Here is the input.
Amino acid sequence: MGDWKTITVPVLSSDSKNIFHYTSEKKISPPSMNSQVLRLPLPSSKSMHSFFSAFCTEENIEQSISYLNRELTTLGFPSIYAESKGQELNLISIINCMNELLVLQHKNLRAQEEVEMQHLKLGSDMDHLQNCYAKLKEQLELSKREIVGLQERDRQLQSKNRNLHQLLKNEKDEVQKLQNIISSRATQYNHDMKRKEREYNKLKERLHQLVMNKKDKKIAMEVLNYVGRADGKRGAWRTDKTEARNEEEMYKVLLSDYEQRQKQLLVENAELKKVLQQMKKEIILLLPPQKQKPKERSEDGPVLSDLEEDIGELNKENMWELSCETVREQLTNSIRKQWRMLKNHVEKLDNQVSRVHSGALNEKDVISREDHELETEKLELEIQQCKEMIKTQQQLLQQQLMSPCDDDTTLLLQDCYLLEERERLQEEWRLFREQKKNFEKERRSFTEAAIRLGLERKAFEEDRGAWLKQQFLSMSTDYKHSENVTTPSAFLGSCDQDNQLVKSTSQRKPPCMLSGPVSAEPCQTSQYITRNSAASKKPAGDSKPNQWVESDKEETK
Amino acid sequence: MSFSELFKLSGLLGRFSPDGKCLASCVQYRLVVRDASTLQILQLYTCLDQIQYIEWSSDSLFILCAMYKRGVVQVWSLEQPDWHCKIDEGSAGLVASCWSPDGRHILNTTEFHVSVNSSVLFSLFSLSLMNLGSLAGIAFTKDGRYMAVAERRDCKDFVSIFVCSDWQLLRHFDTETQDLFGIEWAPNGCVLAAWDTCLEYKILLYSLDGRLLSTYRAYEWSLGIKSIAWSPSSQFLAIGSYDEKVRILNHVTWKKITEFEHPATVASSKTIVYKEVEKSPSVETERLSFPPTRALASSLFSTQSKYDVSQVPVSLQHIKPVTDRANPKMGIGMLAFSPDNCFLATKNDNIPNAVWIWDIQKLKLFVVLEQLCAVQSFQWDPRQPRLAVCTGNSKVYLWSPAGCVSVQVPMEGKAAAGTSQAIISFLFPKYFSTCKSVRALSCKWLGCFLGAL
Here is the structure.
């Protein structure tokens, strides 16, 4: 392939014209080499002409042809030589080859275009990516720098923090040191003070001794006049009994004070407990009904039961006024629980309200206030409409139930209804009567038919009898026909039976003339259709008219 | 307010009798007893020496006059003017003297011991209770049944509880204090508060039978307690300390329930601040005469003042005491509960011109009274929530929840110029409080004024 390429490129530049000349000649007449000029329109420029003519000249036609043939065969095209002779060229195959080549060329061009397009696209993509890459690199650089800056700041702040901590520690240490100094000094001073005090006391004692020695023999007090006590008693001597009494009195005083305080505290306690219980009850009332998730329900379930238990218990407690530790704890714990529940509930409501205000309604079970209001309005409207409907219906009912002498309109209405019904009934009656008439007609016809039939039968029977007589008479003459008697007798029997049946049926139901002839028909049909098995049919036939009669009866009812 | 005439008084020793019928005053060595309503002289007694201290007995029948220099106490009877009693402590030296609550015993504190003299009893016996090293603190319960005496022996503090009826020692225990400074009974008579010297913040609470109920220490190393006050119901104990705070303990747990701060700037909007404002009187020049009459002179030089309500925030005058002197003027120096247990009046020595009134029911600052001069003392009316304040000038300031008023007390002469040493002591005997009258005894050498509001 490479060879071909390299050859064709320079060669084709020259003798394109000749090739086409030649080919045109080959078309017309393969062996002749006329120099007919047939220029096929070429899509390429003049350079291509020379390009084409470069390969094949007048001298190397044979070689170029054989070369072309070789190339084409190697490419998989059929040979351009004719099959029979080596030198003759197969024009058709040549044309086909050319066509194939052209097609191939087109394909290749298209492929090339596509490849070029792709190439362009890839190029632009690449450019784009390169730009992005450059930008990202810049950004990365920037952010790295920022990070470095922030890290630096962070380091500075941390170091500042550490410094401050250190300062604080130093200050604290100093404070501690000073306190220690102060405490040590305080102990020192105390010690000194105690020493000095002792010295002072000693000196005072000595002074007292010195001074007192002189004067203290005198009585310090003079009573010029004696004044009695307010209650006239004398003072008592101090004895053990008085001591005990004093102790007792002191303890009494203390105890009374404590008792008083305890009473006050009890009163306060009772009041506070009352308040707590009230609060508890109110909180329970405030809490919403339990329509939450089952998870919560499971939490609240035992709580509720606990609450109820607590209430019961505490009410009992109130009655007995016990105030033991467990009861107090229970009360406070239950109140805390409920307060928490109430708080959660209020928080939920707050969240809902805030969400509504912010306008984000994402959850299904959260209804915005406007929607809620719309719903309520709609429901109210519906309720109103229903109420109105109910009212009107009630009114109508009342009108219906009320007595007719009240209103003309009601009377009229009633009359209207009655008229309607009457008309309907009349129509039905008419229909009924018509049917009746028809039936009667039919019956009459049937009866007439039956009568006729009967008459005919009679005649026939008579004829038969006569004939039988004749036969008999004739039979009596010859015994050979004695076997034939049975069948006519059977026939007779059956005929008699039939006749009887018919008669009975016609007699049985004289008022229903309808049934008579009608029943005769199926009987007759059964007679005529199946003579041999008349017995079996009869009950069926009987039952049929019976059934039919019953149904007819039903109709007439 | 109307005022009576002046009469002389020396040494700030004017006292009403507990039943309010008589008024005793002393001039030098003479004791003058007057009728309270008419001020007529009922009795006149003469003592041995210049009287330093007088006290009525609780049943208003006897007056004791103490002369510390001589070491003599003389007791006079009102019913029997001829009767008198003299107690001579001799060289022991008399430091203080007071009546016992039953009005029949006199407790003399000498430098060596406290002696109880039942000199007015049928039998006289003096029992020397103990040897005391330092000035004793004596506290009587409100009902007068028990007496607590604080003493120091061998560098240790002890408290002894006596039954006043027969002066029997009930309990004697030591306190864990460095240097016991003071003791005070709760009004219900069951708890005794003992607090330490100002170098250490420590207050101990003892029950009547001597058990230690609780100890409270707010902080270490700084100057501690300056003053304490029991609430009349014994429910609260207010402790004022040198850090300008008042801490309130409750009687159930003896733990602090709240702290009251006294900052220099009052910022809370719910507090009412009354500021004393001067208004100078107008003088018509034609009316002036020479020499100026007494009344004119006093009216010229006296300045009227009234109260204005200031808008919060108010900044008060704050002084910082010198740090190298002892007993600095800082901290809460005065505490007093109102009799209905609703208010607590305090004074912060760092802000000497202000009286702080706290609402105890709400535990919040209620009113601040800002005076022009430093507040010297204040006292509550024993029946109603009415506070009387004096600042050393010639005015008396009264506050009640209804409002605030300043009353000019007519004074003359040198007092009109204002003496910084003047201390006005107020007495509100129950009898007169019901009549809505205020009697004021005022300062040094000057008169006694009776006023009716």
